User: Fold this.
Amino acid sequence: MRAPHRLLAGRRAKAQLQPATRRSNFLVLICRALFAGCAALLPASAFADGIPLSGQIGFQEAATPVQLEIELFHNWVLLPVITAICLFVLGLLVYVVLRFNEKANPVPRRTTHHPVLEIGWTVVPVMILIAIAIPSFRLLTEQLIVPEADLTLKVTGKQWYWTYNYPADQGGGFEFDSVMIPPSELKPGDIRMLSVDNEAVVPVGKVVRLQVTAADVLHGFAIPSFGVRIDAVPGRLNESWFKAEREGIYYGQCAKLCGKDHSGMPIAIRVVSEEVYRTWLAEAKKKFASADGSQPRYAANAARTAQLP
Ligand SMILES: [Cu+2]
Assistant:
């Protein structure tokens, strides 16, 4: 049995936690337990980081707290609600078909209004929508209000590749283009339509502020494992953030129809340890210091891709 003072201290600590945080922590624990259970039944290859898998249903594995909350919200709120509604409507339809068909009910009642029923079927869906909207808006707010950031990554969408800029005041001061590797030049280990020549690199466990814009038309910067999806709009700077909790490489794609090579501008973010990040930063500084923009490289790749059957 626990000593009374320790019990009290535990209760006090619990009381200090926000109820929403406690609930959310509880859900996170349940989700992780279920995930671990399912993971044991599946081959290790099913959990490769940050890529969609053939035959996959559901989300890519979460690598940030925001994406984990999105998964919880979807799996434990939206799915049960929509399943219950579908079953209820199906039940009503079956009941109506059986009970009120011409044979079973030859003389129909002539009732046309039922105020209680009408108010009920208006108010109940409104209540359901409000119940869904509250956690949904909380999630949206969490995605868009950037906590104190450890580093900033500026992203510019272009037809049809991404440019990443590492600001000088954070040890950067360079930018580079990230262009998809054409299918004809893939090497072993590369992923068709997802691998790029230059990946963006960020340290693990750090809050990365994303500043996203576009140079020509609307693009969408979306990384499923990070729970990030934000429009890249010419003349406008949109902000989001992520905090990757595991090392690995995470892929995303442009999420706005932006032209003929919309499908050919993948996003690849490599999450590494702090030391590896420092080393990469020093090397990238030299490598990209004299880069004058690699639009010619994109043009050359595009020309090669166009020749493919
Ligand atoms: Cu695009």
In short: Confidence is low (pLDDT under 50) at residues 1-21, 35-47. The first helix runs from residue 4 to 16.
